[in-house]
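Please fill in the sequence for the structure shown.

STRUCTURE ENCODING:
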């Protein structure tokens, strides 16, 4: 939502008129209307939807989904460096028991605990350091605090005193729910378990303890999406492009 708002603000400042379509009311035929000169698609999209939108033959940019393989411009956050940065921070702090809790991308029916790209990146880094433990990787049903709470409760029940000493969590919303579960089960954070989320949403700094997280520069992503779309309007480039926006690690009270 915060990314969508940043894009809305960018379009408004540039005097473009626009309309938001959401999953509940989305129909590609609505976008075929000639009054829509371009599309910015925000969020996770499966192959069917990407191809469906592509068949509209309008200038378009995807934000948060890598669509370069479909010859569509896209803007993504730098997941690789962000996971490496967070992992390195934990390892240098003396933590080698590292787990992950991420959400199921429900638009991608084929994404599982085994093939999720976030899991692949973290497991690869941990494998290189010879500290990978597959039983520490878990998937929540979606990207909500309630889902994070439910899954962390189940993890605590399953692992007991064998909980890893740190979790990288796929979104701040999931992490906030996980913090609540740990607090209820009287698991000290960060003394016993460090938590690092992803996105740096506004509420991350106000939960107790403050949530360590990967900051994603939403305004920079919005600007990049706007610039790519504007170049398509002006026919200034022909080859499809992918812009990867850098992230930063924000350390607060939930981790070492």
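FILLED IN BY: designer on duty
SEQUENCE:
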């Amino acid at each position: 939502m915060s990314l969508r708002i940043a894009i809305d603000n960018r379009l408004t400042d540039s005097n473009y008129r626009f309309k938001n379509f959401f999953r509940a009311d989305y129909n590609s035929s609505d976008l075929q209307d000639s009054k829509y000169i371009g599309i910015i698609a925000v969020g996770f999209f499966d192959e069917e939807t990407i191809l469906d939108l592509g068949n509209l033959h309008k200038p378009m940019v995807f934000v948060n989904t890598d669509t370069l393989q479909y010859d569509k411009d896209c803007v993504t956050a730098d997941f690789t460096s962000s996971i490496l940065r967070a992992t390195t921070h934990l390892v240098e702090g003396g933590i080698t028991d590292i787990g992950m809790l991420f959400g199921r991308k429900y638009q991608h029916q084929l994404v599982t605990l085994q093939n999720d790209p976030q899991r692949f990146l973290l497991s690869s880094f941990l494998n290189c350091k010879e500290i990978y433990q597959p039983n520490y990787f878990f998937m929540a049903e979606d990207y909500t605090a309630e889902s994070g709470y439910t899954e962390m409760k189940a993890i605590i029940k399953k692992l007991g005193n064998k909980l890893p000493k740190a979790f990288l969590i796929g979104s701040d919303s999931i992490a906030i729910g996980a913090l609540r579960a740990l607090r209820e089960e009287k698991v000290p954070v960060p003394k016993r378990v460090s938590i690092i989320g992803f996105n740096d949403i506004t509420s991350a700094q106000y939960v107790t303890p403050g949530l360590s997280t990967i900051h994603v520069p939403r305004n920079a992503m919005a600007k990049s999406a706007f610039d790519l779309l504007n170049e398509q309007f002006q026919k200034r480039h022909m080859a499809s492009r992918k812009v990867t926006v850098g992230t930063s690690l924000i350390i607060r009270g939930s981790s070492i």
